[in-house]
Predict the 3D structure of the following.
Amino acid sequence: MMQSWFPDAKLGIFLHWGIYSVKGIPESWAFFNRQISYEDYMAQCSGFTANHYDPQAWANLFQRAGAKYAVLTSKHHDGVALWDTQLSDLSVVKQTPAARDLLTPYCEALREKGLKVGIYFSHLDWSHPDYAPIPPEERHGDTMEKAYQQWSDGPNNPTWQRFLKFHRGQLEELCTRFGKVDLLWFDGDWTPGDEYWRMAELREQLLSWQPETILNSRMRGHGDYQTPEQGIPISRPEGPWEFCVTINDSWGYQPQDQNYKSVRQIVRMFAECIGMGGNLLLDITPKEDGIFPPEQVERLEALGDWIRQHEEAVYATEAGLPAGHLYGTSTLSKDHQTLYAMIFDRPWDEIAIKGIRNQIKRVSVVGSGHELSYRKMGGAAWMNIPGVLWIEVPEAELNPNATVIKIELDGPLDLYSGAGHAIESN
């Protein structure tokens, strides 16, 4: 059930942490796609130590980055649980040198810092005998259509019912053993169909255990918000949404992947998300010992610095101007009387904003407070067609990552978005 904190959160931290970080290979997909044998993949259990896992330090870092929530992979498609599940022996508690529940301290550390607790859970489980993928040598054609075992006698067959009992049982553990869970982030609902998963029924069950939790979209249409992945939407999605993206090109820790997004690119993605009314869920990748690569820490710290400097344009704001009004993005204060224009590229002296009918009270730079000169040009006031607002932005006021211009209006934003027409009387 959607909660008021989510649209105001703006930034979350995604954490893919599991045995795949030992060899630094793709999470779960490495054995599914036969990059490595299942046996060799699971042999990584012997190297997963969590020796330097410090959930308080994690929470401190997330807070400094400006995040309001985090989401940790409690179990990916490989079936290895980060908690002491009573329904399987496949957990870091029973199979790795870490030998302890890693989920409880994570939840407690977030709550201590006032951060919302998110838990990722994979519906499918490629290690469970009742949910086995088709061996790769048998695949042909569209592998995503034929990737999973199907049962000719439908969803009521004993094999699937055993798996569903296991699936529901692990979710009951997550919802009843770790205190309040603010967000359940699901994955892997691709196949089989909803007649197998019975997602509407699952939704009701989850809300009976956690009445105030939010469910993401990977519930076959029974979630609370959309989750576009790895590509920022071109047009604003309907309703609440969250864009999840990797800080480099990998969800889990892969030391060879040095293709990190720059601070400027991360700030821009973040600004574009909140400008369209969404959240950014930025994925980072702990090593097997629980330490984050320094390149990732540096980027989170820099993102946090930018957010703190421009906090009023970030939190307690709504989506800003629709596309076409500004070469950039923007947010709008909750009372709709202040517009925050976010400029990514170096302007030639001025920026232009189209369609604002309001009178302008003041224009300034967020962070420095420096007041800017502006003028309105063109328009036809007698036909309620506004001119273009031109704002002078001195070179000295530009932020290297994104410059935010505060435009104070004489009332709630009155916006013209028409196609224009001929004026017969001037």
The chain has two domains: 5-309, 318-409. The longest strand covers residues 69-75. The longest helix spans residues 158-176. Residues 5-309 form a domain with the TIM Barrel fold (CATH 3.20.20.80).
